[in-house]
Specification:
InterPro entries: ATP-dep_Glu-Cys_Ligase-2, CP_ATPgrasp_2, UCP005522. The protein is an alpha+beta fold and 489 residues long. Helices cover 29% and strands 25% of the residues.
Length: 489
Amino acid sequence: MNARTTQSIELIDYPQPGIYDELLGDDLRPRPAARTLFDYVNRLGAEELVARREAVDAAIMAMGITFTVYSEAGNIDRAWPFDIIPRTMSKREWDRIDAGLKQRLTALNLFIDDLYNAQRIVKDGIFPAEVLAGSKNFRDCCRGMTPRFGVWAHVCGTDLVRDGDGTVYVLEDNLRVPSGVSYMLENRQLMKRLFPELFKSSDILPVDDYPTQLYDTLAALSPRQDDRPVVVVLTPGIYNSAYFEHSYLAQKMGAILVEGSDLVVKADDCVYMKTISGLRRVDVVYRRIDDDFLDPEAFRADSMLGVPGLMRAWKAGKVGIANAPGAGVADDKVVYTFVPQIIKYYLDQDPIIPNVPSWLCMDDTQREHVLANLDKLVVKPANESGGYGMLIGPRASEEERRKFADLIRANPRNYMAQPTLAISTAPTMVGDQLAPRHLDLRPFVLQSNRLHVTTGGLTRVALRQGSLVVNSSQGGGSKDTWIVDTGEA
């Protein structure tokens, strides 16, 4: 184990050859956006940092910031795992990412609207008809619909990673019911309590306006533009892993948290909320329920979570739904591989942020390459999330790779592969020392009548040494993300 000391804080397991660190350069000196942070942390010293971390952990427990892990033993609520050393990035670098995220969501929404209407991109041979035919998230009942502003995915959580050479890539797009933004907001509040002096001395760009931005995005979807809209957050209930976020956002927006049984669709195709004083019309539903359970009339008839007739109300233009039903057609890891062509087709632009190089198993030549190199690649199923169902080839056993090869041969449309990236790290507290841990970044992009990108996002960190899996359900945690205006032109 290598150990180095930057003044009073010891760095262990540094440097990491071939891996980009977000806060430290190859010489282990802080990057420009992290200089003020490291000066401050070193003045505090290890003992004080440990004390502040313990205070934050206690605050997380007291505030009830939790997430739910589904396991064979049942649903387990756990305190949110949080690391107190933030991830930093300069505003100059962020401005380019901001533009790239706006470009990407604009093109994806044009793509979704086209698929449910003219399907020009299929007829022009840019997007294969067989990929669309094999999509589990294409909803026939949405054909011919164009939601307000032509926008289907109003909230997108785009996962970004940085490779060893410093290049930032889009790892995947989350367009159905992306989660995590409440933890981004809570992380910032925790850091303000932890390091108040730094927020006075550094130009750290804010994220606190997200609930207002989200409300404005949703309110713009209201069919009744002359009145203050009634916005509800539709949750599956308290046993959902993201219930903390559902209740948190409803409270912060001044919206109403509801379950399916709280809503009813009447003969006029309007959605109403049951209240003690009678029915009250609902204008916008921010749904946190998957399509399959949204409306038993249109999707799964056995769903007890949704609202009978909700699709009918939406198609009649009597209610706005975010994200729109059917938006998940673009939330597919196989569709992801076509996003550069999608951007070029609809916007006549090259992508500002590149995709990770990928191989499609539905292509015979590419599939043979994947099967011959399973020990070097990461293989992902088209529609899984949370880090489930994928193969990390270099860390898998021969038996696991053999089973995955059989899965690929049986259903090649369902799989794509990518190289195992040397994902960037950042110093993370391990005991009273700082050690590198791999991480990604999920900014949140909003679109209705305008576009908005959070300044930064949710940094997810793999707390286990050497792990590349950042998902909280599999042992990951999070950091606050600081976009710092260093004054660089």
